[in-house]
């Protein structure tokens, strides 16, 4: 199960689910929309890649979403996001290739770390800057 930094207060309150009786049964249960999860994944690491966005052409569902990512090396990937994690399903945007048997990664960080040395460097530098800032805060 992947954790994200999605604050429920940031989500629009007028989703329309309240009025729709078909969704009332789901209140209080842990039904997760993978599109929301995918948006949170994109927001977490967008700063460290050239381009990243949730696919608008491949179908999103409660249990699957697709994310297009272009690394700083200009390599393009289509990622599948499920409860099992993230994996590469194609080497271009908005594609899936059933012949690809790529491993699942528990986090987007480990997946991008394996695909992109430039991501690793940018992410590492951002982490160092954050640690330096925290160190300064604690000293003041």
Automatic annotation (TrEMBL):
SUPFAM superfamilies attached to this UniProt entry: Hypothetical protein c14orf129, hspc210 (SSF103107)
Q: Quote a single Gene Ontology cellular component term.
A: cytoplasm
Specify where the region named Disordered lies, as residue ranges: 1-24
Which molecular-function annotations from GO does this UniProt entry contain?
A: kinase regulator activity; protein kinase A binding
Extract the InterPro entries matched here.
GSKIP, GSKIP_dom, GSKIP_dom_sf
The organism's superkingdom is given as Eukaryota
Q: Which residues form the GSKIP domain?
A: 34-134
Gene Ontology BP terms: regulation of canonical Wnt signaling pathway
The UniProt entry, under PANTHER family, shows: GSK3B-INTERACTING PROTEIN
What family is reported?
Belongs to the GSKIP family.
User: What is the name of this protein?
Assistant: GSKIP protein
Give the source species: Sapayoa aenigma
Q: Which gene encodes it?
A: Gskip
């Amino acid at each position: 199960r992947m954790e994200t930094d999605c604050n429920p207060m940031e989500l629009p309150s007028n989703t329309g689910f309240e009025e729709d009786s078909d969704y009332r049964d789901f209140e209080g249960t842990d039904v997760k929309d993978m599109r929301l999860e995918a948006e949170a994944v994109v927001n977490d690491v967008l700063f460290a890649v050239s381009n990243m966005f949730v696919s608008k052409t491949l179908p999103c569902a409660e249990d699957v979403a697709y994310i297009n990512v272009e690394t700083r090396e200009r390599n393009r990937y289509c990622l599948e996001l499920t409860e099992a994690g993230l994996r590469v399903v194609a080497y271009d945007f908005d594609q899936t290739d059933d012949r690809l048997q790529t491993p699942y990664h528990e986090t987007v960080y480990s997946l991008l770390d394996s695909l992109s040395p430039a991501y690793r460097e940018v992410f590492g530098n951002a982490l160092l800057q954050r640690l330096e800032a925290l160190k300064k805060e604690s000293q003041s």
